[in-house]
Amino acid sequence: MKQLLLHLRNLGFTEMEAKIMVELASKGQASGYEVAKQLGVSRSNVYAALQRLTQQGYVRCGEGEPARYSVLDPEELATMISGKVQASLAYMESEMPRGGPISPSFYNVEGERNVIGELTRQLNLAAQEIVVDVWREEASLLRSELEQAELRGVKLLWAFDGGNAAPAAYPVWPPLPGKPPRSGGRKFSFVIDRSWCMLGMRYEDGNAQAVVTEHPVLVELLLNHFTQEMVLFELEEDMGPELQKRYGERYSRIHSKYVWQEPEEAGEEGAD
């Protein structure tokens, strides 16, 4: 009963109107007095609601004294509500003012449920392309949405990290003095139709946080990063031993030229 009343309210009926309609549907027909007595509310409020429902066509008023009311059959009611909702939606879509361009903004999403919910909505809206850079565990949470996108003809481009125990592909940036990073997180990014993107982190405790934007700069950065990862992957497949021989495992020698390190780490790297 509570769920039915909730859905009727979601369709635009007041709480009083929803209760009256359910009561009439249960009884078949009843007078305003009987409805008010059953619901334990004032007759004036019931008669006012009945008048509105009758004028809108959801409730019929029979002849006689006292007048007895009945609500439309569920199928008739659904058809009438659906027609009015569709008409209102069509009018809103055609007549809603369209202002000037809106500057792209950034907003944060906190919590795994909210992050997954936001991604699910956007993946379901994808029309042409989805670029994914994610760990397999996080990808599995969105497997259904990604499969449905492919079935719709959306092109999927993937970059996967392996399992939780897999080492970083390249040396990580060491923390600055006094600013230890939060550990245990796995980064992920999504670019949808080259216009919407999410960049975030999911932690070992299951919590997640992400930044979402349609700003073209971040979209371009993520796409460029994806491209570089794919190029390096192909190079390593073809020239892996030669690259390691010249630059060291995970290209540590190149990395150490540009990234600050603790002196002892730099010394160890130089000895390699």
Question: What would you say about this model in short?
Answer:
The protein is of the alpha+beta class and 272 residues long. Helix content is 52%, strand content 18%.
Top keywords for this entry?
three-stranded antiparallel β-sheet, alpha+beta, disordered C terminus, 272 residues
Task: Kindly describe this structure.
The protein is an alpha+beta fold. The chain is built from 11 helices and 9 strands. The chain has helices at 2-10, 15-27, 32-39, 43-56, 74-95, 112-125, 136-140, 143-151, 216-247, 252-258, 263-270; strands at 30-31, 59-61, 68-71, 106-110, 129-135, 155-161, 186-192, 196-202, 208-213. The chain has a 6-stranded mixed beta sheet, with helices on both faces.
Count every helix, treating DSSP H or I runs of 4 or more residues as helices: 11
Gap between N and C termini: 73 Å
Q: Percent helix among the residues?
A: 40-55%
Q: What's the main sheet like?
A: 6 strands, mixed
Amount of beta strand: 15-25%
Query: Uncertain runs with pLDDT below 50, 5 residues or more?
Result: 264-272
How is the largest sheet built, in terms of strand order? 4-9-8-7-5-6
Q: How many strands in all?
A: 9
Mean pLDDT: 86
Q: What is the molecular shape?
A: elongated
Name the helix and strand elements from N-terminus to C-terminus, one letter apiece.
HHEHHEEHEHEHHEEEEHHH
- Find the structural class using helix and strand composition: alpha+beta
Oligomer: single chain
Please state the CA-atom Rg, rounded to the nearest Å. 30 Å
